[in-house]
Amino acid sequence: AAMAGVARRLLCRGLSVAAGPPSTRQLREAEEAAPVFQYAGKAARRKDRVFVWGFSYSGALGVPSFVRPDAGWKKPRRIQPTPYRLETDEKISSAACGYGFTLLASNTKDITKVWGMGLNKDSQLGFQRTRRDQTKGYEYVLEPSPIPLPLEKPQQTRVLQVSCGRAHSLVLTDSEGVFTMGNNSYGQCGRKVVEDEIYSGSHLIHQLKEFDSRVVQVVCGQDHSLFRTKKGTVYACGWGADGQTGLGHYNITSVPTKLGGDIAGVNIIQVSSYGDCCLAVSDEGDVFGWGNSEYLQLASVTETTQVNVPRHLPFKIGKVKEAACGGTGNIVLTEEGNVFVWGYGILGKGPNLTESAVPEMIPPSLFGWSDFSPDVRVAHVRCGLSQFAALTNRGELFVWGKNLRGCLGTGRMEDQYFPWRVTVPGEVVDVACGVDHMVSMVRSFT
Amino acid sequence: LNAAPGRAPRQRVRFLPTPAPGGGGALELVAARVPVLADHPLVRGPRFRKLKIGAGHRLDVKASGVFVLGIGHGNKLLTDLYNCHLPKVYIVGGLFGKATDDFSDTGNLVEKTTFDHITREKLDRILAVIQGTNQKALLMYSNIDMKTQEAYELAVKGLIRPMGKSPPIITAVRCLQFALPEFQLEIHCLHETQQYLRKMVHEIGLELKSSAVCTQVRRIRDGVFTVDDALPRTQWNLQSIREAIQNCQLKVETELEKTLG
């Protein structure tokens, strides 16, 4: 009994510790001994992502599960009202939205440089071979599918820019000219119009190389194409009934022809078009316009509703840096960072301003400028058919205009009468606006 | 307060019987102004037996800064100021590398993380996004129909703000100091609580792929009252309080008129 007692006292002394609430020293020691987790190293790079939103049944968003759900409980999603992330294989450097289809292009030297999704009834996405029948092509492409371009040096040429119109698309490369595909019933692909040509399932991709210098920008209007070269000249081809080719006549042009008029001899640094009106910006900050003027787009210089020769628009708003044309409204951005709109439709200054022949400025306070943050400025402006988009230098995207099938991305179905911020989880680098959908290229925050 | 000279007693005209200037026992009524006996200090007693003091927007135990109190008639002004929904400004100090359960540095440790990848640029980008999303919340909770011209006018002037109940909204954020692991933010907010600000610091840490705790919350402005108007502990005496009330009267009146009309 005595031995057991001694053993128990020894055990008590050695192994038991007085319990109680942890003292400050114990807490501090526990804290210092805790493991440190690392979620991002010093070399963590920001990721580039693509976000899409708008009408999805045409396949233009590139998410097949919206159109054909892959699980029983999923329902088809007709409209994606807020930005949705699209997984892409490569970093997308240029995107363009057409009328129900989208093109994504990457700057890579790999063989696959351009992906397309959406409507393909006029082969505007090239020939997409079906799985079942090797001779037929898909009419609706639901996923970003590679477009086979007939490049001479596929592992050296880089794709610089893509552009989409109503039923045709243009791909600009750095050393092999411009590739055009899609509908050519008005010569918008730059090749001779073939009567009764069937465009659906066509393998034909035309290459355009004859310009006075290297082409640096391609723009698609509804049924016409514009090419801007390094020397500052502008070429056009396609439908001209509204004068949108700017060549002095109202006929079809099937070969890219140089424009004259007020832009002859002027160094143009940017061209823009989406509907039937076109705008060009010179290096000195002047704006030139031609094409449809039924909605007062060019009413500041002429009363006629069609202008088939480029005319200088004498606006006294300062040096213009960038211009964008929509279906019925136009928008320009000046060097100071001010945004001006004119034309017809929802222009962005409330429901009362529906049309204007002269540019009206949108107050910068609507884009996040305030006394608290005075260095917020608009960096880029873009136009869809009846929507406008503005990107600020802080990477925020503001949209306004008609909310056709949820294309504004605000999460609501109503039209937006003044600039509204779109919540995108990242810094928006560029945005492409279409008729009923939009695509944005975004960099993550960290 | 009771020692200060009070109101003079009311005067009343009474007809008092006084003996006639002639002789004999005839009494004459002469009008005279006499003080009312009911106003005599010995009858009435001390002027103030208790004071009604009301408190303005809450400030919790771990925070510090401007705390508005109203005395007597000021309580009604306090209610009016509350209905103005003016923004408040806080200085919030944070520390990277730790995450605790109550988001402040005195809580139980949950996790420790590295923070050497955080730069001032990344923090500014996150703050810009916070400001942008809260700007949208501001427009949404103000219950104005976005399709009207007046909504556009107010949005241009920046006067849209929720005039009723709403979740906490941050109208502006700015980074004042950044010295890893510590940083300091100036936050302008509406309808917030200090715990919400601490939670925001924690969320900023999460967005930056690290963790953060809040070390200091100090309110430097509450509507029209700033730190300059506030009285420190050493000046909690009658004279300073009176002066402070007088100095602020004009400001409060102009603000109330401007907002509530």
Describe the structure.
The complex is a heterodimer of chains A (446) and B (261). With 446 residues, chain A is mostly beta strands. Chain A is 6% helix and 39% strand. Chain A contains 3 helices and 29 strands. In chain A, the strands form 7 sheets. A 4-stranded antiparallel sheet of chain A has the order 3-2-29-28, with no helix packed on it. The longest helix of chain B is centred in the last third of the chain and has 23 residues, at 238-260. The model of chain B has no long low-confidence stretch (mean pLDDT 88). In chain B, helix 2 crosses helix 6 (238-260). Chain B has 261 residues and is α+β, with helices and mostly antiparallel strands. Chain B is elongated. The two termini of chain B are 34 Å apart. The chains are: A mainly beta (446), B alpha+beta (261). At the A-B interface, strand 1 and strand 27 of A face strand 8, helix 3 and helix 4 of B. Strand 1 (36-37) of chain A pairs parallel with strand 8 of chain B.
User: Treating each run of at least 4 consecutive H or I residues as one helix, how many helices of chain B?
Assistant: 6
Helix content of chain A: under 10%
| Backbone structural class of chain A | mainly beta
What's the shape of chain A?
globular
Identify the biggest protein-protein contact and residues per side. Answer: A-B, 37 and 37 residues
The ordered H/E elements of chain B are EEHEEEHEEEHHEEHEEH
Task: List unreliable stretches of 5+ residues of chain A.
Answer: none
Largest sheet of chain B: 6 strands, mixed
CATH topology of the largest domain in chain B: Pseudouridine synthase
What is the CATH homologous superfamily assignment of the largest domain in chain B?
Answer: Pseudouridine synthase
